[in-house]
Specification:
Layout: E1 4-9, H1 13-23, E2 28-34, H2 38-48, E3 52-54, H3 57-61, E4 68-71, H4 78-87, E5 91-95, H5 102-115, E6 119-122, H6 129-139, E7 146-154, H7 166-169, H8 173-188, E8 194-202, E9 215-222, E10 227-233, E11 241-248, E12 251-256, E13 265-267, E14 283-285, H9 291-295, H10 297-309, H11 318-337, E15 341-342, H12 355-360
Parallel strand pairs: 1-2, 1-4, 2-3, 4-5, 5-6, 7-10
Antiparallel strand pairs: 7-11, 8-9, 8-15, 9-10, 11-12, 13-14
Helix pairs in contact: 1-10, 4-5, 5-11, 8-11
């Protein structure tokens, strides 16, 4: 096999990221895409020159010429789509968060193992060039023993309406973006076990739009003593903020995925696009150059393609995605109870892990 033949599930924002990354890779052939939204599907296929389209993902999965699929669909569909792809013998890349519950995560992992296909968890921060360089410095001992990590991602809300619906998304700002900070910290520390989690969250701005939290802070204590602080918000105005701090006994590293890679720009009239989640382009703005590369998406997908072509284990697996879910769900219980949640951890509400926090808010 000299190329991975790809099928894409979805035609929205996440699928656009996947298509953009795969289009840069000479070892990928985009064969087909599937989405129930005909207008969106046809527009997506035309933009990326994908020859075949399907309304039903199961019909696409019947194509023998597809080796791997990417899942860029709403969270509540992840389990079904991954299990169906595994049954069809396709390797799978699935967007974060891995699933809506730990039981779903276990089902997905088991289905892919049974089928002998790779389940690859799309955590782009582990491939963002700045963060990769930072980890190399950490691994070389450049800042001594890491004891504190702070990762934040904040903006004024998601790009698709389904994120606001807890039945389809499974959680608010924490579940949407805390996945990134959690796995980034695990990766930087070489994936130690979690010792405890404590969190605080509330809905400050979007109370009329969602039952979920629009601002959150989580504190993760790892075995070995390191602590990670994960800050996430849908309530921050002025565009996206995405940054990382790594504190060690002999130094510190600061990384900013947006501001340090942007071009300070002033426009009286405004222009087409500056950066993800920026609401306006009039006045002073900071447009990114090659935004998706800064976030790590092309390198992430190139890694997954290489894993399929050369039968290598992926850096980010279904098990990693499950470990992240445990932290997210424990954060909701911590915020609801106002106390630390120790690990090993079992959700109080396994079928709907955000339920403890929603009940504490009377929602």
């Amino acid at each position: 096999m000299d190329k991975v033949r790809l099928g894409l599930i979805g035609s929205g924002f996440s699928a656009e990221l996947h298509a953009d990354a795969m289009a840069r890779n000479s070892r990928v052939q985009m064969v087909a895409c599937a989405s129930p939204d005909q207008q969106s599907r046809e527009k997506f296929a035309a933009k990326w020159r994908i020859p075949r389209t399907f309304a039903d993902h199961r019909a696409m999965l019947e194509l023998k010429e597809i080796d791997m699929v990417t899942v860029g669909a709403p969270n509540y569909l992840h389990c079904t789509l991954v299990v169906d792809a595994a049954a069809a013998g396709k390797h799978v890349v699935v967007e974060k968060p891995l699933a809506m519950t730990l039981a779903e995560a276990d089902q997905m992992i088991a289905a892919c193992k049974k089928a002998g296909v790779k389940l690859m968890y799309a955590e782009d921060l582990c491939f963002a060039p700045k963060y990769v360089r930072a980890k190399r410095i950490v691994d070389e001992g450049g800042i001594g023993k890491v004891f504190h990590i702070r990762q934040l991602e904040k903006h004024f809300g998601p790009h698709s309406d389904w994120f606001w619906d807890m039945e389809r998304s499974g959680g608010g700002a924490l579940f949407d973006m805390g996945c990134h900070g959690t796995e980034c910290a695990r990766w930087l520390l070489n994936k130690p076990k979690v010792k405890s989690v404590m969190a605080s969250m509330n809905t400050y701005v979007h109370i009329n739009r969602t039952k979920g939290e629009d601002d959150s802070t989580g504190i993760i204590e790892f075995e070995g003593g390191a602590v990670a602080v994960i800050e996430n918000s849908w309530a921050k105005r002025g565009g996206i903020e995405d940054a990382l701090e790594i504190h060690g006994s002999d130094g510190v590293i600061y990384c900013d995925l947006v501001r340090g890679s942007s071009m300070l720009t002033y426009s009286e009239k405004g222009y087409g696009y500056a950066v993800e989640k920026a609401p306006d382009t009039k006045g002073w703005t900071m447009p990114l150059f090659d935004e998706w590369w800064q976030y790590g998406y092309p390198d992430e997908m190139a890694h997954f393609v290489d894993c399929v072509l050369n039968d290598k284990p992926p850096l980010e697996t279904g098990e990693d995605g499950r470990a992240v879910l445990e932290v997210m769900f424990a954060c909701y219980e911590s915020a609801a109870a106002g106390r630390r949640i120790d690990f090993p951890y079992t959700p109080a509400y396994p079928s709907r892990p955000i339920e403890s926090w929603l009940r504490s808010k009377g929602r």
